[in-house]
Structure formats: structure tokens, C-alpha cells
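[Amino acid chain]
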Amino acid sequence: SATGSWSRSSRPSCPGLSNVHTAPEEGGGGGMVMAPSRRDFLKSASVAGVAAVAGGAGVVRPRAERQGGQDIRMVETPVLDIGYEEHGNSGGFPVVLLHGFPYDVRSWDGVVPPLADAGYRVLVPYLRGYGPTRFRDAASPRMAEQAAIAQDVIDLVDALGLEQVALAGFDWGNRAACIAAILHPERVRAQVAIGGYSVQNTVTPGRSASAAAEARLWYQWYFNTERGRAGLEANRRDIIRYLWDTWSPGWEYTDAAFERSAPSFDNPDFVDVVIHSYRHRHVNAAGEARFLAVERRLAERPPILVPAIVLRGAESGFGRPSSDPTGDQARFPGLVARRIVDGAGHDLPAHRPDAVSSALLELLA
């Protein structure tokens, strides 16, 4: 692999997602729906003009059933009941591992043991729309713009009473980690960004790309049609397995590995969450009013100032990453290293867990 290291830069304070929720959730292109009790609970003032979700101590409770052979804990946040798995030393420094679409927490199974053995507290949540995670208000529109996924991370951290964490993520999880690090650098000690900088401009429609690049995004255009919604509803496992295989062409997934994750995609909110995410990013669905200021700021593609290591899979179905580090250096002024990881596709934590755990341990040493 190609590896480079750079000195960390200082981190000025940076306004971010606040601890307050000042507006009800807005439906994708529809009206706003909010029960009176939730509306009363969520009224508050914004910090630095940025509206977001209330934090504070959450209620953590064990869950009786197991998924993927693991015990599941639940924590209440203002919007979600978030399911997560916990490993390692409960008093150790917390590391949060964030999966992407269309995967689940099982992608991190090989990453967890070295971190737990080193004394860290490892938290592996299911994103909204996956596994046991549920919206608390049955009337809430099932929306999933990038700012909402990032706010879920901050809400989880707040609910567990954690002042600072290390983050690692890929795909949607990496995007959430990038945004959390941009908007709350004081809460993120270090970040492993799998895939690099993934913050999107959801304000201005993107330009057309080459035929090859557009073809790789077929699923996004599909999900922006009603046929795509119906197809994901009816054939979600077939579509997901196809994406797994094509996004990691050098890796052979077993049926057993897929079946360990497949129950997560049966979440009743999965389809709505996925569809909204891919329509919002292409400016084909409205986002939540509470995140308008956040999305405008993210559209400027602000840099990530926390200490970071960027990992990129050498065998990604989206194409081999460039060996030129200048793009990542520009986006991550606090970049410690950039590595192209051999033997890894898009689902890098599952393919090369050693690369991820080693990067986290290096940053936290």
C-alpha cells in the first residue's frame, strides 16, 4: 500500500450541530407531521444559527433478542431508539464504528477485537433504517439526509454521556463521521475516513459525469424513480447482494456472510430511508427544515481539522483510487496518513479489518 504522513495542524473552534431542536421534521416534498407532545418537547433555541436535535442523557436498556449472534443494547435519543453493540472495557476511551449502505454492523466484526483487547470501549450502532434502530415517533417522516445521519451520531454520543470519541466509518457512516468532525471537532479526538472526504453538496445539482462514472451510480438513478422504490421494496436482498458483489469485485462474499447482515435490511424504515437519502442528495427531495443551515454550510465543502487517517480500498468497484495524495491533504489538514489498502473493496472493514484497527490504534496512541 501507498502511505504518507503529515504533521497535524491546530484545530480552531468550529460551530457545529447544536444540542437543540427548533423545528419539526419536514416530509420529503410533503407537509410537516409532528405530534403535539413531540413538538412541545423539541422546542428550543439554536446555537450559532444552526438548528439540530436535543442531546442530553439518554435511557440505555438491554434488548432481549440477539441479532447476528450479538447482544443488542438500545439508547433513546430525541428522534431515534438506536440499537448498538458494545464491546471491550466499559471505562475505556470510546470508539464509534459507523457502517454504510447497504451493509450493517457485521462489517466491523474483525475490527472490534484488537480495539477491545487494547482497552477501548467499542460502540457499533445500527444507522437509522437498519436492524433494531427505530424512529420514536410513528408520525415522523422517514428521512435520511447527510446532516440527519451525522446528527444521529452526535445524539448517540450525547445520550451515552460521552464527551469525546474516535470515529471510523465507510460509505454513509464515513459521511456521518466527516460531518460530525467538521461541525463538532471538539467531540472527535480522531477519525479514520474510509473512502476519504465524502461530504456532499445537496444545495446545487451536480454536473453530469463520464458514462463510466454515471453507470457506476445506476442504483442512485434507479432509486430516484418510483420503479426504483418499488424494486427496492420487493427485491431488496437481491439488489443489496448485487451491490455487495459489484462494489467489491475482488472479494467473494459467502451466502452465510450475507445472511448474517440480511435481517438488518428488513427494518420497516429501510426503504423510505434509502430512497430519501438518494433523492435528497440529487436535489429531488426536500430535506428537514432544521438542517437547512447545516446543508448550506456543508455545500461549501469545509475541511476536516481533526487528526485523521484516510483509507481507500485498492479494489473498489468504483475504480482504483488515485495514488496522488494532494486531494486528501487539502480536505484533511490534520492528515496523519493516507493509505491505499490492497485486498479491500468498498466494504473495507470486512476485507481488511487489520488496516482499520491499526489506523485507530495509531491515532489514539
In short: The chain has a mean pLDDT of 86. The radius of gyration is 19 Å.
